[in-house]
Amino acid sequence: MARRSNRQTDMRARIAATAARIMAEDGVDDFALAKRKAARQLGAADTHALPRNDEVEAELRAYRALYQADEHPELVDELRRVALGAMETLEQFNPYLTGPVLSGLAGPYAEIDLQLFPDSAKEVEIFLLDRRIPFKTSEARRYSGDRARSTSLISLTWEGVPMRLSVLDPRDERVALKTSEAGRAMERAGISEVSALLRPQKPGKSRQ
């Protein structure tokens, strides 16, 4: 039994490290997808050996600190600048940044995730239509505790970067939300907090 437990622990660590490498090198931002790919690569059939997201996240941060110490911080900073510009434009809807761009784990194909809290979801759509910004809509669920909340999602491109707007009820602005009932609460940051995260721009450097 102990030998089997040790094998599972070793496989969890190997899957976590491989999933982190997949995320860093292939631009995968989905933890579940990266873990499945890593398990297949390693021939791990036992799904009980799959590591938790935070285990993969720790490996991913270590990998990027070692192999992408220069380019990755620049990528994240640029994505945060794009996010901040969008947040300032959408300020009337109380925007918050969340997801991998906020956490600093974003890859080169990352989507910027913003949460908006307008009085009505239609206000956001009208705002975008008035500015002739193409978008698509869909639905998702967000959770507070064990309570599910229907959420409107708006997908668009902002300054060449894919962006997803989660349009939420204003009453949920002070509530910790999760993407799944068993998941952890999503961290989020407002305009001033995102601005404080930005590194000083180097002289002569401007956005492409």
What does this structure look like?
The protein is 44% helix and 18% strand. The chain is an alpha+beta fold and 208 residues long. A hairpin with a 2-residue loop joins strand 3 (136-144) and strand 4. Helix 1 crosses helix 2, helix 1 (2-26) crosses helix 3 (53-67) and helix 4 (71-89) runs antiparallel to helix 7 (191-197). The longest helix has 25 residues, at 2-26. The termini are far apart.
Q: What's the quick description here?
A:
This protein is α+β, with helices and mostly antiparallel strands and 208 residues long. 44% of the residues lie in helices and 18% in strands. The protein starts with a helix and ends in an 11-residue tail after the last helix.
- The backbone outline, from C-alpha atoms, is globular
Q: What is the number of helical segments per DSSP (H or I, 4+ residues)?
A: 7
Q: Output mean pLDDT.
A: 87
Largest sheet: 6 strands, mixed
Note poorly predicted spans.
Answer: none
Order of helices and strands: HHHHEHEHEEEEH
N-to-C span: 57 Å
Number of strands: 6
The helicity comes to 40-55%
Strand content: 15-25%
Strand order of the largest sheet: 3-4-5-2-1-6
Task: Provide key terms for this protein.
208 residues; alpha+beta; globular
Topology, element by element:
Elements (H helix, E strand, L loop, with lengths): L1 H25 L4 H12 L10 H15 L3 H19 L6 E3 L1 H4 L8 E5 L4 H10 L5 E9 L2 E12 L2 E7 L20 E2 L1 H7 L11
Parallel strand pairs: 2-5
Antiparallel strand pairs: 1-2, 1-6, 3-4, 4-5
